[in-house]
Amino acid sequence: MLPKTIIRHISQFAGVRDAAKYVPRRALLYVPASNQKMLDKVPMMQADSVVLELEDGVALTAKADARVRAAAALDKLPYHTLACQELGLRVNSVSSGLLEDDIIAVSKAEKLPQAFMIPKVDCPEDLVTIYNIFREHYGDERITNTNTRLVIWIESARALLDMPRIVSSTLNLHKQAGFFKLDAVVFGSDDFCADIGATRSSHGTETLFARQKFVTCCKAFQLQAIDSVYIDIKDLDGLRRQSAEGWQWGFTGKQVIHPSQVSVVQEQFLPPKDRIEWAQELVHAYSEHEALGKGAFQFRGQMIDRPLLLQALNIIQLVERVQN
Ligand SMILES: CC(=O)SCCNC(=O)CCNC(=O)[C@H](O)C(C)(C)COP(=O)(O)OP(=O)(O)OC[C@H]1O[C@@H](n2cnc3c(N)ncnc32)[C@H](O)[C@@H]1OP(=O)(O)O
Ligand SMILES: O=CC(=O)O
Ligand SMILES: [Mg+2]
Q1: Which ligand is the nearest neighbour of the Cα of 29?
Q2: Can you give the chain as a three-state secondary structure string?
Q3: All domains of the chain, ordered by start, with CATH?
Q4: Which ligand 1 atom is nearest residue 190's CA?
Q5: What is the value of ipTM here, to two decimals?
Q6: Can you list the residues of the chain whose pLDDT is less than 70?
C-alpha cells in the first residue's frame, strides 16, 4: 500500500501508465497458425501474450490453411480460461498484399482476438489502408469501441524514423473513430536487419541505436515497448542476457518463438526481489522526508530525490500489474 502523499506523484510519473486494464506482455509467444499441433497447446501456454501467427512464421503456401485454423481457434478458445493474459492474432502487413485475404477469413469468426497485431507498419498512410480493410470486412459496428487492443510492429529504417507520426496516427484513429486502441509497439529486429543490410549477431550491437530510439519513442507515448526476437533457441544464457539488457533499457517485454524461452524472459522482465524491497522502502522513506520538507536525502548510502522516487514507483506499479 503506497503512502497517500506518494499517490500524487504517480499522476505525473514516467513509464507505461493507463487507467484501463494493464496487460503484461513480458513474453509474447508466436504460435504459427498453420500448425494444429502447436495451436492445440495454446490453452496451457504460460506466455503473457500468445500470438496466433499468420505472417512470417507461416509459409506462403500455407497461408489459406492457417487463416481457417486461426478463425476456428478464435471461436473455440474460451479466453477467460486460458493460461495466458491475452490471445492475439498477427495478420500480414499492408505491403504484403495479403492483409485483405487475412481479414476476409478471420472476420468469419464470431469473436475478435483480444489483440489485433499488425506487422511492418511503415508509414501513417498504412493505417488508413488497415482501417478501410477492417471496416469493409468486419463492418463499422464490430470494430468500434471494443475491448480489442492494437499492437503494431516497427521493422524498417523508414518506419523507425517516422515512428512518432505512425504512433500518433494510430492513437488518433482510436480517439476519432473508436478503432482498436494502440497498447504496445514491437521492434521487428530481424526484418529491420534485413532492411538496413545489417548482419545479425547474438550480442545485437547492430541494432543498438535502433532499439534505444525505439524504446524512447514508445515511452514518449507511454506505450509498452516489446524487444527483439532471440533466434538462437538453444542459447538460454544469451537470451537471459539480452532480456536483462532490454529490461534495463526500459523495454516492457520480449518476443519469443519457443516455449522454452518463456520463463527465462518472464523472469528477466520482473525486477529482482531485492530491487522490489529497495523500491518499497524508498517510497516510505521519501514520504517521511517529504513530510519534513526534505526533497533530497540519504538512503542506503545514495542520494535520493524525485527521479529516484519515480524509478521506484515504476517497479512497484509493474509488480502490482503482473500479479493482479
Ligand atoms: C522474426 C519473426 O518474425 S519471429 C515470428 C515468426 N516465427 C514463428 O512464428 C516461429 C515460431 N516457432 C516455431 O515455429 C518453432 O519453435 C520452431 C519451428 C522454430 C521450432 O519448432 P520444433 O522444431 O518443433 O522445436 P522443438 O522440437 O524444440 O519443439 C518442442 C515442442 O514444443 C512445441 N513448440 C515449439 N515451438 C512452439 C511454438 N512456437 N508454439 C507452440 N508449440 C511449440 C513443438 O511442437 C514440440 O511439441 P511436442 O513436444 O509435442 O512435439
Ligand atoms: O517480426 C519480427 C522480426 O523480428 O522481424
Ligand atoms: Mg518481422
Answers
A1: 1
A2: CCCHHHHHHHCCCCCCCCCCCCCCCCEEEEEECCCHHHHCCHHHCCCCEEEEECCCCCCHHHHHHHHHHHHHHHHHCCHHHCCCCEEEEECCCCCCCCHHHHHHHHCCCCCCCCEEEECCCCCHHHHHHHHHHHHHHHCHHHHCCCCCEEEEEECCHHHHHCHHHHHHHHHHHHHHHCCCEEEEEEECHHHHHHHHCCCCCCCCHHHHHHHHHHHHHHHHCCCEEEECCCCCCCCHHHHHHHHHHHHHHCCCEEEECCHHHHHHHHHHCCCCHHHHHHHHHHHHHHHHHHHCCCCCEEECCEEECHHHHHHHHHHHHHHHHHHC
A3: 27-268 (3.20.20.60), 273-323 (no CATH)
A4: 1
A5: 0.99
A6: 1, 7-21
